[in-house]
Every structure is written in structure tokens, then in C-alpha cells.
């Protein structure tokens, strides 16, 4: 069993699986259960300023998107930050940290955008013995209307300013949580770096309406006939999060900052993918909310088995491993030629590849009278759509043509690496030399 | 061979030579990767899952299915084997329809449970195919433990004890290790010599010495074992077979079903194994079903199972009964044997219909006869060879929840011990739990 011990911006935890700041981490009872189940760390549900706590709606807080068999793919919420008194949360955090000294305990914070508010609350929270802070610049609903959460996260200058205040107020690591509800994730990430952040975490939830009730004509989740946009998370957002993580990891100005990857992590494989694209650890919420805290056991056993099989001895060996392979479109090898191949032994003759290719792509699949489906190499552009729509994993694969082999579609032999920057059709092409 | 199912008497080779392999092939073929993923996908990862509660060995079924789903069947296997070291065999022989799969929430939702048994087999097969053993022995404790009986309970206890660093000597009267896994389970449930392969894989833990041909009470005494070892675990099974108590049961052609099943399992060439043209099996348990179905598969023309009570009282599950009838076995409920007729050899069995009034069984006086060249008795096994002085309850060695017998330093588990159903999976649980208790008491100081 591989050693999953992780050090993330100076914070140690027995494994890279942290629970994200969210309903599962709102109180001592849950967090203790989470630690007992095996979670390596917890980002406590966002604390607000002292005084009367926020209130939540008293109707549905969540809406969902389901896949086949009612598998929960996307979850949307309109819950605000913790609605329990600050003092209660601080007492509970102190107790929990004392009883679980080997686990990471991070305080998520969201207070009004003035120096006083931040500089007052940060030292007070530090007294709990927490290992670090996460600045919630991400929540896109409710609090944003009050000038907090994503309202701050959408303005790089504010991010930089608040991060600096917090760094001045504590020696503990400060993680800046980023909102994906922006045009380019690099702007807020750069601002966090400029402000002195020790790490960034992303993504927070995406603004969304999950569905509309077509009888009452109200968006879901619906409160007394009305609805509002909420934050979307879960497996459905993973591709968006992976890209944003990778963008930060490969951008020269931000490539050095540790990244806590968040967004639809459900299995060990999701976690490994975030790590490979630049994350140093991952945070999880929807998987725990769907399956309970025990779900971490599969993540631990799976990541451990994967590391053993690959010969990796620490999580940091996976981290950033795929970053060098993330590039711009213009650098992709235009002489990498592949063709789809259908394994007739695996094929169940459903014809989905044919419909997809014939109707919407390149008419490169042939259907015989007895329903045998074959690829026409002289038409196949290797778009991969047939692979993606095939219900049988591994039935359709892509075969790479060797250098020198003739591509039947173009009639030309496969050449050496060459990309768009040197392509003759590119009016801005530079010389291949 | 020119024999056919119609050849009179008890004879071998009733079927064309080439058909035996197909007749006795895997009852539930292994799932391939795609099938396993589709099957695993149906699991809801229930909280405090009913399937897990229903499993006598408390395997974390939702977790292992999730591990299959995420492409780590080896991790899934470890989850299974940590609780049940014979998870491979149990995946094949467990009556899942009355255990984990019966309580699956998808049985409630759609009448179609997650295929837990087949998924368990998929995971354990994948691990065993790599011939890797996921457990290692603790440092030697210097303690020695004797295990009498190398069936599921004995193997389970031996493995757990060896894992804790104890030295184990396992004794068994038979030539091969495995007990009922090797000698007592229908051939089509564990083809390809799986029982021996599993034993070999289990032994990789190290620290277990096997001595075959050693039977408790015959050259092997409990007193001697107690003197030579720090603890003793008895897993001697039920070696006796109940008699019919019907007139003529000593006639030729009347056999114990367990012997027939054992002969069949040990046969190198099924075409040499004789079976009657008309076979009657008396009994209502899994042994009766196994004997009946295999008689039919060997080419008997007609096979009839006769059970003295009603269908609902039959200990073979509904699924097992359907399996039998689907193979062409006829089941007669509510009839008890009164006499075996024939001139030296069994030719007919005479039955009386019964009625069951509040559990009290009485004959109705109405008789009928079934032609039978071969009659198998499968009306239960009994404990024989229990050491003297050990407390017996309900015909079995009395044990506590952790397998302690009335004799200090002696534990017992499996079919020979009181409590639990006589299932492979129950025996494994009892062996494991007794081993943990032996370990705890030996290490106490």
C-alpha cells in the first residue's frame, strides 16, 4: 500500500483527500465522522463575521441533474455560508483539531471587503489551532449580492488586496479559492500570486439553474414559486475544473503556486487526473454528499493501487506529471494520423457509430446489409465521435499510422512532426527552419 | 460406449464422451470486463448496506463493487478477502439469493438485485489470476495451533492464525485439503479444480503445515493435541449420514448422496462414473439438489427428488429448486419413504404421502411407488467423532459466539459446531472469528 502522505503548501495530511468547505464540514459531528472514515483533511464550512449569523432559506437548497439510472451528475445549491454562531464553530474547530492532530483542518473565511474585518477575524480563528485559511472568493449565490464571495473573486484587484491583508494578519498558509464565473481563470490566479497567497484552490461552483418546473414555470430549486441561480458542482463540472487547473499550472506567472483541485472528484481516478494536471491535493464535496463519507475509502485504495502499479512512492510524483503535455492547439502535430478501427468481436451492432458518422460527421463508416459496421479509411478524419458514442468500451479504438504509411484519405504519406505555425495554409506561418 | 439414458440399471457412459464437459461446465460463467462494469454500475453504495448485514462474513459489498467500478478489481478482492479468505469459493457456492442478493435494495426496486456473487467472483478471479497474495504474516509469535479438519472453517482459521504469526498444523483425514469445497460441492459450481487452486493460493500466507490422513479419534487425540499445541481448533464437519429408517435400505443401489457427490468431484473421467436410469433422491437440502442435478447431467433418464414436507419448508432455496427442475429433475413434495423394493438391488421405492399439521408430520395412508435403480439418501449429516467429554448441544459441539467449547484451550467452528447455518460462508466466518479469539487469548500474556 503506497504512502499517500501529502504536504500541501506546508500543511501535512495523511492523504490528499480533503473535504471542501461546504455542508459536509459545517459542524463537529460531521467532521469527526469524516476523519473516522479516513479523510485526510477538512476545509471547515465558511465562517462569517461575528454577530447575527446568516440565515438560509427554509425550502429546498439543492437542485440536481441526473444521468441514466438516476446517477447524480450535477448538484446545484443556494445555501449560504455557515448559519451557526462564529463562537460555536471556533470552539468545535478547536476540539476537533486537538483530537485529530494529524489531519489538516483549514478555516474557510468570508467577511466584508475591508481590512478591518479580515484582520480582526483571521487571528481569532488562528487560535483554534487550524492549519491554514482558505479565502472564499467563490460562492456565486446569495453572498455575492452582498459584495462577498464571487463578487470579490471576479475582481482581481480585490483578490490581491484581501489576500495581502490576510497574509499580514497571519503566518499560517493562506489558500485563495477561485470562482470559475469569470472570463479567464489566469487573472484571479495571478492576483492571488501577487497578493502573496500560498496556494489557490479551484473551482468553486458555477452559476446555474438546474431545471424549470413546467407546471409552475419556476426555476429549480424553487422557493414559493421563485428560484434563483445557485452554485453548480459534481461530476458534471470536472472537465471545466480540470482545464482551469491546467491553465494555472502551465502559465509562467502562476505555475509555481500550489493548487488544490476541486470539481467533481468522485473516484481515485478523478483525483489522480487533477493531480497530474497540476494539483497538489484535491477537495471533495458532491461525492461525499451523494455517497457518504465512506466513499473516501475507494479513493484511498484506488490511488494507492495505481501508485503501486506505476511505482510511484509519493503523491508528489503524480502531481504536475501531465502539465508538460498540455499545450496550445497551434502546437499539436498535424502529421499525427489515426484511423478508427471497429473490433468486430466486441461490436454489438447497435449502429450508433454509423448514425453519428453518417448524419453528423464524415460518412466514414459503412454498414453492410447484415449490419456489419466498418470504417472507410479513405473518409475517416479520426474525429473520435464513433469512439465516444459507442456503448462498449474498447470496441472502437484509434490506430496510429506509422511514419511513411499512406493516409488513404489524403493520399499522402505520414510525415514528421509539423504544426500549424509552419503550415502552408497559415498566412502567418513561420519558416520550418 | 453404446449406453444411453435408457440403458437399464446403474451404468456409466450414458452420454457421448464429448458432451460431459459441456454438461458440467460453469453454472454461472465468469463476467467479462464489460459485463462486470455494467453490473457494478447498478450498485447504489447504500449506507449500512443490507447486503453487508446479510453476509455471514460481513464483506463490505458496496465498497468492493465501487472498487470494481473504478477499475481496481484487485483492491476489490482485498476488501472481500480481508473478511472472507475463501471469497472466491463463496462467490461460486453461496446461496446469494437467500443472503446478500435477497436484501439488495434493487431487488426491492426492480426485482433484480445487483449480481453480487458474480461480481465477487470477478474481483477474486482477477486477483488470483495474478497469483498475488495481498496478506503478509506478522512476526512469529512462537505459538503453535492445531486445526483438525481442512474444510472451509479450518482453512479460514488456519489462514487468520498464520497471518497473526502463529504456526499452524492442519490435520485432515482425506487425501486432499478443502473439505466440502473439494468433496462436497456440485461440480458445475466450482469447475477447473478451483477448490485446489484456492487452497494453493491461500497457503501462500506461509506458516501452515498440512497433515492429511489424520483423523481425530483415529490416531489423533484431542488430549495429545492439547499437550502439543497452545490451542486447538476443531472443524471436523459432519461425517455421519442419517439413515432413511425405511425397510430395505440396505439393498444394492442405495447410496449416500455425499459419497456420490464426492466420487463425482474426484472423478477424472465422468464417462466412467455409473448412474442409474431411474434415480430417486430423498431429501430437501442443497446436497439433495446437487445429487439430483448431477445425476441428470450424467445422463439418467429420470431423476426425482422426494421431500417429506412442503415446498416452503425445503431448505434448498427457491433458486436451487428451480435449477433442479430446469435441468429436468422432478420434485415431489410431501412424501416420505417407507420401503425399498427389489430383488437384492433397488428397483422401486415406496412412499407415503404426508400431511404437515402445525409442524407435526403424519402419513396420510396413501402410497405410491417410483421406479429406482439408484436411490440417494440426502436427509442430513450428523456429528461423529467428537472428542469425549466435550459438551454437545443439538447434536453439535456447543460453542460460544467466538467458538469456545466447553474444554479450555479448544475452539470449534463450521458444520460440527452449534449455531449458524451449515454454509461454506458461515464456516469461514466461524473459523475467522475463532482464530481472532484464539489470537487474543494467546497474546493476552
Automatic annotation (TrEMBL), chain A:
InterPro entries: 4Fe4S_Fe-S-bd, 4Fe4S_Fe_S_CS, Aldolase_TIM, Dihydroorotate_DH_cat. It catalyses: 5,6-dihydrothymine + NAD(+) = thymine + NADH + H(+); 5,6-dihydrouracil + NAD(+) = uracil + NADH + H(+). The keyword Transferase does not apply. Its EC number is 1.3.1.1. Residues 338-370, 371-401 form the 4Fe-4S ferredoxin-type domain. Keywords: Iron, Iron-sulfur, Metal-binding, Oxidoreductase. One of its GO terms (molecular function) is iron-sulfur cluster binding. It is an enzyme of class 1 (oxidoreductase). SUPFAM superfamilies: 4Fe-4S ferredoxins, FMN-linked oxidoreductases. GO terms for cellular component: cytoplasm. Belongs to the dihydropyrimidine dehydrogenase family. Heterotetramer of 2 PreA and 2 PreT subunits. Involved in pyrimidine base degradation. Catalyzes physiologically the reduction of uracil to 5,6-dihydrouracil (DHU) by using NADH as a specific cosubstrate. It also catalyzes the reverse reaction and the reduction of thymine to 5,6-dihydrothymine (DHT). NCBIfam families: PRK08318.1. This is dihydrouracil dehydrogenase (NAD(+)). It comes from Celeribacter neptunius. The lineage of its organism: Bacteria, Pseudomonadati, Pseudomonadota, Alphaproteobacteria, Rhodobacterales.
UniProtKB/TrEMBL annotation, chain B:
It catalyses: 5,6-dihydrothymine + NAD(+) = thymine + NADH + H(+); 5,6-dihydrouracil + NAD(+) = uracil + NADH + H(+). It is an enzyme of class 1 (oxidoreductase). The keyword Oxidoreductase applies. One of its GO terms (molecular function) is iron-sulfur cluster binding. Residues 144-431 form the FAD/NAD(P)-binding domain. Its EC number is 1.3.1.1. It comes from the Bacteria. Keywords: Oxidoreductase. Residues 22-130 form the Dihydroprymidine dehydrogenase domain. InterPro entries: DPD_II, FAD/NAD-bd_sf, FAD/NAD-binding_dom, Helical_ferredxn. Heterotetramer of 2 PreA and 2 PreT subunits. PANTHER family: DIHYDROPYRIMIDINE DEHYDROGENASE [NADP(+)] (PTHR43073:SF2). Involved in pyrimidine base degradation. Catalyzes physiologically the reduction of uracil to 5,6-dihydrouracil (DHU) by using NADH as a specific cosubstrate. It also catalyzes the reverse reaction and the reduction of thymine to 5,6-dihydrothymine (DHT). This is dihydrouracil dehydrogenase (NAD(+)). It comes from Celeribacter neptunius.
